[in-house]
Amino acid sequence: MVGDxxxxxxxxxxxxxxxxxxxxxxxxxxxxxxxxxxxxxYADEWASEGVTAWHHWxxxxxxxxxxxxxxxxxxxxxxxxxxxxxxxxxILASALDYPPERPDPVTPxxxxxxxxxxxxxxxxxxxxxxxxxxxLLGHLxxxxxxxxxxxxxxxxxxxxxxxxxxxxxxxxxxxxxxxxLKIK
Length: 184
What we know:
By secondary structure, the protein is mainly α. Helix content is 39%, strand content 5%.
């Protein structure tokens, strides 16, 4: 029965509960009667001692940690409190011993003698120059179809297809297309 609940004896310690049903205990819970006096004492110590008042406050943090520890059977001095869980996790993680980094399983690249020779001579074994992507695109663009019209009485027109280089032929071969050797 509700009237027999042993927690009801604590209800009078929370003045707001005499006037309201207060269900916001997950955010800013109902203030206990003694909290006002404790906060007032804290403010007085802060005002009169400034930062040196920590000699009062730090032992209280330890005592409160011990009280929390009693809830789950932890021995005194084994529970710590912190105002920020992320900072606390960083503190705890800093105490862990991390094994040394494993060596990289990927072997560093060693250039083959053929690759070194290509780089040194700037040409393939077949004599074709080595090109980076940009210069290759520029080279492929030189395969052109030209129409030349002479300004003569017949307006003679010559269609000319440039002769593809070995590199251009190989590029068409790699993409599975025929090199345009004839003008249609």
